[in-house]
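Please, structure for the following, as tokens.
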Amino acid sequence: MDKDFEFTGYNKKLKENSQKLRKEMTPQERHLWYDFLKNYPIRFNRQRSIGNYIVDFYSSKAKLAIEIDGSQHYEDKNKKEDEERTRIIKSYGIDVIRFSNYDINTNFEGVCMEIDRVICEKLRISTQIF
């Protein structure tokens, strides 16, 4: 088994679900993937399982998960669930950054710049893209 999968708590039971989610990405996820992350110099995976969760995007090199949140994530119940989810993912040594669909739709360049900034800071490298 790939060492990265062991480190992140890769869950084979979620493989089928991950594949389905890759085929059914939201427009915002598609935009971020095809217009930025797919060709980013640091490799990302889409819909990657970590423990009992599936994150939207994951970079093993940067130990970074990126989540794109729709409006349902801002309801009280879902906010608490997201906080717990983030806490568990962080327990694997993985940082989580979140952006809303609105962020992707209205400030795409700013989102990309922030992702680039976080990765460069984590890896202690100079800017990759901007």
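The first helix runs from residue 3 to 7. The longest strand covers residues 53-59.
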